[in-house]
Amino acid sequence: MGRTLQNTMINLGLQNACDEAVYQLGLDMEELEEIEEDAGLGNGGLGRLAACFLDSMATLGLAAYGYGIRYEYGIFNQKIRDGWQVEEADDWLRHGNPWEKARPEYMLPVHFYGRVEHSASGAKWVDTQVVLALPYDTPVPGYMNNTVNTMRLWSARAPNDFNLRDFNVGDYIQAVLDRNLAENISRVLYPNDNFFEGKELRLKQEYFVVAATLQDIIRRFKASKFGSTDSVRTVFDSFPDQVAIQLNDTHPAMAIPELMRIFVDIEKLPWDKAWDITKRTFAYTNHTVLPEALERWPVDLVEKLLPRHLQIIYEINQRHLDHIASLFPNDVGRLRRMSLIEEGGTKRINMAHLCIVGSHAVNGVAKIHSEIVKTQVFEDFAALEPEKFQNKTNGITPRRWLLLCNPGLAELIAEKIGEDYVRDLSQLTKLHEFVDDDLFIREVAKVKQENKVKFALYLEKEYKVKINPSSMFDVHVKRIHEYKRQLMNCLHIITMYNRIRRDPAKLFVPRTVIIGGKAAPGYHMAKMIIKLINAVAQVVNNDPVVGSKLKVIFLENYRVSLAEKVIPATDLSEQISTAGTEASGTGNMKFMLNGALTIGTMDGANVEMAEEAGEENLFIFGMRVEDVTELDRKGYNAQLYYDRLPELKQAVDQIKSGFFSPKDPNLFNDVVNMLFHHDR
User: What residues bear N6-(pyridoxal phosphate)lysine in this entry (predicted)?
Assistant: First the structure.
């Protein structure tokens, strides 16, 4: 979510009044804003997308709730020490959080472990361990429309009789200390982006948010006039008309068996009716096609933690497979491919399959991604129900990503086309009238230059490096991942460096290359890439032959509040993932909205951006999805390129020989080995 103060003032139309009031107190509003901690309760684009959606839904006046976990520790703070990433705990609540309000009156129980008893009256989940979910509400104001929605985040609390009701009579002190075990559920965010780590605590977190949220939704439904009924119709007939639940990736997939459990075991609905209501309630957004990111939970773990849910998943799967067998008799291959349960080695539950089967709509997040979802990753499901699969290209909130972070540009635009565009970005097409208005063009350039000067000052203060504000600011900020190809950018930096050294007199457009982003703590290659970038920066920035022509900066601790500073100052936006790997990307949109040019591949939403702006107005390069597929089929041989391209050979040799790591020439062996032998 980032910071809340400035966003709240803007959406309430109070920014100028507050600035003035604070100024009269002898204080500086900007200084005050810098004190607030970022709420960093998610990873990369998926978490930020949820935050943007909340702002947009409130601005559209939709009755929408954002549900999640109130992590005590959010995404780690990144420190760079000696060129390496070091993680520090993000103690963001240290000084309290003025934006949240605890709502103990809505506290709810969540059950774990236990066993299932079957009887004539149905299944009962018994002997469970209980954890309490305490909600904290944060207001989500719409833009100038008198709407305030709610983000409700759950915190885990141990019940007061925790460990005291059973065999623990003797050790009261230990029993109280053991409350931590329950409360650890909301302690810390798992810092993986686009990677699945099948840890028990993570599954607990996923079920915790789901179980608390569904109870909350059902309580609200029953309390509303729609929930009460005199007729013979089931209380829940109108449920899907009143409630829509969007699953943000598969992380809340357990909501599907959980809602079925509530309907069948507790509310005593017949299975078919419960399943019909459940399917009409849920829709699923897929956020990635990378196989290592897909959630596949071991059956043994689910059986231990959520025994009743496993039974329900088996029942869903049985009915699902019976249906497919009736349509495709004797096609065992298809049954195996479409099963919710993956056999072979350890049995696992494919959570994406569960989401597809349990939802009435499935969407990808950009045209190209939605096509890949339909034709490759889930092709069997799309063949079965083509109407279920849709596209919803991602977006960003223009309030935070233009008005808040770039008031100079926002004001310039408003002078030309009015202020309505802030609610409806399609109105930016009105700017077409002014493409030849020299004064306007100059004014826009001037705003960009002012933003660059301001950011250069920030860099000098934070990094003690002198930046040439008239150089091209070439910016590559996002999570560090092989598929996002920060390594390719690094090879380009080395190549530019070599060109300058080879011919120092040759004209070279000065550039400042800024790379930033966090690597998941367990992702060895991503951490090596950070170290390499910093090692290259060390050499480049201290070579007198290069001078101010080329500077390399690794931006420490990239986060929302830092994005708000760097994006408005950017000249060139790097969106260079291998085609077919970046589902959408949203940073790409933020840069374009702030007047940067884009260099990128035909991947994710870059495709729609090129369509909207005209392909001639982006620097599009590299293989398309079809070329990647073809190269995969043919087999990729890195050695060929190394042998054919002298500049590439030189760059790779420098990394390999220790030119950038003289104290440890073999430091980057893993990186070079990856480039030659398993570079996806």
Answer: 590
The verdict on whether 479 is a catalytic residue reads yes
Active-site option among 374, 485, 590, 656:
590
Examine the residue annotation and report whether 466 is marked as an active-site residue of this protein: no
Give the domain range for residue 624: 468-678
Cβ contact 267:236 at 8 Å: yes
Instruction: Determine whether 416 is an active site residue.
Output: no
Number of domains in the chain: 2
3-state per-residue secondary structure call for 452-493: HHHHHHHHHHHHCCCCCCCCEEEEEECCCCHHHCHHHHHHHH
* Confidence check: pLDDT of 228 > 80: no
Per-residue pLDDT tens for 510-553?
999 999 999 999 999 999 999 999 999 999 999 999 999 999 99
Question: Is-above-0.85 flag for pTM?
Answer: yes
Is residue 296 annotated as a catalytic residue, yes or no?
A: no
Q: What is the pLDDT of residues 444-458, one digit of tens each?
A: 999 999 999 999 999
pLDDT of residue 233: 56
- Together in a domain, 346 and 474: no
The dihedrals phi and psi of 598, each to the nearest 5 degrees, come to -115, 130
H-assigned helices in 519-603:
524-541, 560-566, 587-593
**CATH classification of the domain holding 670:** 3.40.50.2000
Tell me, yes or no, if 590 is annotated catalytic: yes
SS3 518: coil
The b/e string for 106-120 (b: 16+ C-beta within 10 A; e otherwise) is: bbbebbbebeeeeee
List the catalytic residue out of 3, 348, 399, 478. Answer: 478
Domain boundary among 359, 380, 395: 359
355 and 476 both lie in a single domain: no
